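Marked as duplicate of an earlier ticket. Keeping the data here for the record.
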Amino acid sequence: MSRLILFNKPYDVLSQFTDRGSDGVRKTLSAFIDLPGVYPAGRLDRDSEGLLLLTDDGRLQARISDPRFKLPKTYLVQVEGVPDDAALDRLRDGVVLKDGPTRPAVAERIADPGLWLRDPPIRVRASIPDSWITLTIREGRNRQVRRMTAAIGYPTLRLIRWSIGEWTVDGVAPGTWRDG
């Protein structure tokens, strides 16, 4: 039987088990997960937090990470400023990025979700408010959510992947995992 791990990846952790960088001192999955034979199904940027799925099943790994299957990925996004309805409509219609237009997204303003604190905390500007949105996409380009919010004029301050398909990080503390 295949194994699926739901990991809440903290900020500043690589989505791999070894650091292939020049200094080799960045935090990796091996600092949190000591299970032989499981591998990440997709990636989550070092400066992003939240759900990372790992499995020992190659077919399941492909189904989760391959864009052809278009699993919805929902993110909680703290942005600089307060997006108006027109800005959210641009996300819902799809925005044009340097590598082409995105597929339409589901985008909503939400109240502060009251999540765990990030270390280090985000930068705060006294003169510019921040707010939260949910963004659900069905593709996975490099740094896509950050580029989408920047394209509508609201840069991302904090990015947390909340769910992939039916799996969610709800109830999984940062730096911990559970079987899925």
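See parent ticket for discussion. The mean pLDDT is 93.
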